[in-house]
Amino acid sequence: MIVSPRLARFARIALVVAAIGAFTLAILPTAPGPENMNDKVNHAFAFFVLSGLAYAGWPRAGAVRIFVLLTAFGGLIEIVQGLDLIGRDADIYDLFADMVGIVIGLFTARLVLRFAPELTEELREKLSD
Predict the structure, then answer these.
(1) Where are the annotated coiled coils located (predicted)?
(2) Residue-number span of the structural domain to which 118 is assigned
């Protein structure tokens, strides 16, 4: 898939910012109170965004490579949360939610880039000249 260089650059920068933000939020201590049932939705949404940005930034990397790398990132978050230093708990179901978000994000990004010609038009025009 051919993506506009401007879109790819924006997506790469946004991915770095989003990944730093997701990691930071994941390692902050949780506030005391009742369990939040939206935790898995939050995980899936975060990785939905990360995978969409990764696919837009590096479409030639391929969905499988992006899936593996982001799953490893999710695993790293769970390992860090499992350390006694930060007062969080690792949860394998959080990693599963991450993986669901990655798959949905990759599928969505592929559809958007395929059916939104304005995102790829700039590069197509340059190649046809």
Answers:
(1) none
(2) 5-30+39-128
